[in-house]
Design goal:
about 80 residues; 1 helix; plasmid; extended; alpha+beta; two-stranded antiparallel ribbon
């Protein structure tokens, strides 16, 4: 991990980072992160991300991000 490789940076959450406690808060947090990544030019359309953990108490997950096409009624 290097400071010049933002895709590999990790560490403890920032003090002001959202810590979702409900599904709605989780969705809002994910939406915020994806919007910021999009604004910063991160290409994450149609990808799958494996989130694996060495700690047995933390489950492993696969996250899929699929770009949806807007319909004419979106935003109305």
């Amino acid at each position: 991990m290097t400071d010049s490789d933002p895709d590999k940076q990790s560490g403890p959450p920032a003090e002001n980072e959202t810590r979702p406690r409900t599904r709605v808060e989780l969705e809002e947090s994910l939406n915020m992160v994806l919007q910021r990544a999009h604004e910063n030019g991160v290409d994450f359309n149609d990808i799958g991300i494996d989130l694996r953990h060495d700690v047995p108490d933390i489950p492993d997950w696969e996250v899929r991000i699929i770009h949806l096409q807007k319909t004419p009624n979106d935003g109305k």
